[in-house]
Design brief:
The complex is a heterodimer of chains A (316) and B (295).
Chain A: H1 4-16, E1 22-26, H2 30-33, H3 35-41, E2 46-48, H4 53-64, E3 69-75, H5 76-82, H6 84-92, E4 99-103, H7 121-126, E5 132-134, H8 139-151, E6 156-159, E7 181-184, E8 189-193, H9 197-210, E9 215-219, E10 222-224, H10 228-234, E11 240-248, H11 253-263, E12 270-275, H12 285-291, H13 296-309
Helix pairs in contact in A: 1-3, 1-8, 4-6, 9-13
Chain B: H1 10-31, H2 37-41, H3 43-53, E1 68-71, H4 77-87, H5 127-141, E2 147-152, H6 159-170, E3 176-182, H7 210-216, E4 220-225, H8 229-244, E5 250-255, H9 278-288
Parallel strand pairs in B: 1-2, 2-3, 3-5, 4-5
Helix pairs in contact in B: 1-3, 1-4, 1-9, 3-4, 3-8, 5-6
The chains are: A alpha/beta (316), B alpha/beta (295).
The structure holds thiamine diphosphate and magnesium ion (MG).
Chain lengths: 316, 295
Amino acid sequence: MKAQRDVWAETLVEVAGLDDTVMVVDGDLANSTKADLFAKAFPDRFVEVGIAEQNMVGIAFGLSTLGYRPWLSTFGVFLTHRALDPIRMLVSQTHASVRLAGAYSGLLNGSSGKTHQDIEDLAIMRAMPNLTVIAPVDEVEAAAVVRWSCAHDGPVYVRLARDAVAPVLPVDYMFELGSVVVLRHGGPVALVSTGVQSSRVFDAAELLAAQGIDARVVHVPTIKPLDETSLLAAIDGCTHVITIEEHTIIGGLGGLVAETLTSHGIAVPVTRLGLADSWSESGPNEFLLDKYGLSAGRVAERVTAAVLADLPTAVH
Amino acid sequence: MTERIERPPVRELERLARLVRWHVLNTVTQSKAGHIGGPLSMADLLVALYFSELSIDPEHPDDPERDRFVLSKGHSAIGLYSVLALRGYFPIDELASFDHGDSRLQGHPDMRLTPGVDVSSGSLGQGLSAAVGIALGAQKRGRDFHTWVVLGDGELQEGMVWEAVNSARRFGLSNLTAIIDLNGLQQYGWAAQQGRDRFDRSEPWGHADLPMILRGYGWTVIEINGHSFAEIFDAFDQVKRAAESGAGPSVIVARTEKGHGISFTRGTYKWHNGVADETQLALARAELLTEGDQS
Ligand SMILES: Cc1ncc(C[n+]2csc(CCOP(=O)(O)OP(=O)(O)O)c2C)c(N)n1
Ligand SMILES: [Mg+2]
């Protein structure tokens, strides 16, 4: 098992050997995000800006005008919040080829607590025109997404996790922008998830199966642009859709799925699980996942409850 | 060809600057909204840059070897557009489309729409970081061009500016020059203190020694009157010397007057934006245009 941050840095080093437009612009966190690996391999294409995230974005934009395609290295929270305005004007509105790597996204960031937990990034970044938003599930997909992003023209936000999860995709997996991935067949309940949470939801489905609930598991790597047909096909025949995300239930994956189903006139109940409009706290990973209902066991419990109630409400 | 044009006589530059000022007031008035004071205070600086200093080619606005210009105080877009039009980037008539729907001339500069606009701006405080990235990229790519950026004095209240001031020096960017349009006013600001402020509101940097702060950051600081072409050219020469000696980034602190050049707009925050009435427009025409000038 490998953490996405390690995969990110290793893949960049690999790609940078062949592509001299790859750069990393760091905000004094290279030894957390693992960009230090890149710094050692390509010192000339590593820019240490220091603790100045807005400035990082501006500098990365400037570099992009010279044909570079820089990756930003900092915690997601400091990009999507602290540096949002430069991302908006200099990156998104100009369609600059800047790659926003949101490291340490979600709840699990080494016990740093709510100041560092980015639980609104998908909602915020998804609202931004021009931006591609991707949340890979495991090490295999993370590598594929990093490769894809390096070759892409225009801005990309990639939601990356600090710690490893059980891989769910085969090593020969091909990332396809927009398409959803059915990780487990079954029904009539569809569990829809994104990012590393999809791996825990996959485990939850195994627990549910043991209890006689046969759930389909759908992973949505591309939050934007979503191939809606692919999502609709993936949940076809399901009578209850439950979204589960390591993110607030407002405006992220749950919002995306609910909006998509509604605009296609598909009248199945959608239950949104995630952070129920609340901040989280410091604590070990297992504690947080359990307390906030995101561990495989807790997901299984909540899904059971939702299926029994069959109510389209958000449950925390 | 991307090159510096021969420096025209000062009288010609003064005439161009008056034309720019006329286009600013007239265009904004016809569009029924827009900024006046900021575009007017930087007009001489921009005319000096575009008509003698920048190595550029209006026929090839994307030439990779061109000097870069960033208008960080993007609300002064109409000032930049007027200069670009006079320099031949697009027809002067096109100024009439400023702010209109489907126009290449947006209310704030859009690098994807307007020939000659290198960086989008409008949210204050971001241009210097962009310029640092450009200058750093030029350094890494071994390109010889120079990057210029114009900031407002009110704009310098944005924290991001100081992040970039620090970075520019750390990266040793001798190919970067900032110009501060120190016009002593911003949009609203604070009440003036009798005898301490130049104009009708408190000066954005009246309480601090701005050149000293910039020197403290390791920049080469050149203080001038931003309405004197002689002083502007002298500053450009100093910039060149600093750049050649690898002294790091330089900044021209240009003392200017907000709304400069038109009797009723000068020295007041009230003309940060606004439109002229018919009498005012006629007065401005008389003050700015001479026989033979196209209005
Ligand atoms: C981030 C941001 N905050 C506020 C504004 C609104 N605004 C536009 S111009 C201006 C005053 C700018 O003053 P200054 O930088 O001194 O410019 P100048 O005097 O040259 O017009 C303000 C507050 C903005 N454009 N961007
Ligand atoms: Mg000002």
